[in-house]
Specification:
alpha/beta; Rossmann fold; Arc Repressor Mutant, subunit A; six-stranded mixed β-sheet; four-stranded antiparallel β-sheet; 9 helices; 39% helix; 21% strand; elongated
């Protein structure tokens, strides 16, 4: 059984080969929210058939699948000369299983249960190594420019000096305009760890970032009271008219 959606020409295409409905929905909704386009295959045979078409930038592959296990899917895919990146998701935590998955041709291996943010990070790393993916090196919103490769930021013709944390905060906000980030999500994505305590320190970093990029009312970076922060270029643009 397979389900599909129409794929956008400029989106990163991800094939999810998984038979657990809760995980499928978790991945499908989360990845679409991050800007990926997804197709789902719920068994190994259909997963192999779809992966072999060459229409996908990345495959997320479960090992325990009906009719054809994920390890065999990966082996056959590589034997057919397909080099699409593959990230294996599995409950098997033994070293021998991880080694077997990598030898079968997987690019990375993530053990269930897993953090969605960790999956996103691994996807980005695999896509970057393969020279594909949706993340452009340079991002521009209005007169604010960010280059992820050189880690340079410019506002108009002026170069802006940021700390590593400030740069990472700005990059996240610029790559996802209009998305509201909770403080907890910002900590996980920028600082790289789970945090459930006081998050007031984020306000300090946002304040410094606003000051350095000259973000005065009408602002680019908005505070969503009781929730977190978002970058809304259209409101800034309207306010300058």
């Amino acid at each position: 059984m397979t389900s599909s959606i129409e794929l956008a020409d400029d989106a990163t295409r991800v094939l999810i080969v998984e038979d657990e409905a809760t995980i499928i929905e978790f991945l499908r909704v989360g990845l679409r929210y991050e800007g990926y386009e997804t197709v789902v295959a719920m068994d190994g045979t259909n997963g192999l058939r779809l992966a072999a078409t060459g229409d996908f930038d990345l495959v997320i592959l479960d090992l325990m699948l009906p009719d054809l296990n994920g390890m065999e899917v990966c082996r056959r895919l590589r034997a057919a000369g397909r080099d699409v990146p593959v990230i294996v998701l599995t409950a098997r935590a033994e070293v021998a299983d991880r080694v077997a998955g990598l030898k079968a041709g997987a690019d990375d291996y993530l053990i269930k249960p897993f953090s969605f943010d960790e999956l996103l990070a691994r996807m980005s790393a695999v896509l970057r190594r393969r020279g594909t993916g949706q993340a452009a090196t340079r991002v521009q919103i209005l007169d604010l420019e960010l280059d992820a490769e050189t880690r340079e930021v410019r506002r108009g013709n002026k170069r802006v000096e940021l700390t590593p944390i400030e740069f990472n905060l700005l990059e996240l906000l610029m790559r996802h305009p209009r998305r509201v980030w909770t403080r907890e999500n910002l900590v996980a994505r920028v600082w790289g760890y789970a945090h459930t305590g006081d998050t007031n320190f984020i306000e300090v970093h946002i304040g410094h970032l606003r000051e350095k990029i000259g973000d005065k009312p009408p602002r680019l970076i908005h505070t969503v009271r009781g929730v977190g922060y978002t970058l809304r270029p259209e409101e800034y643009d309207e306010g300058m008219e």
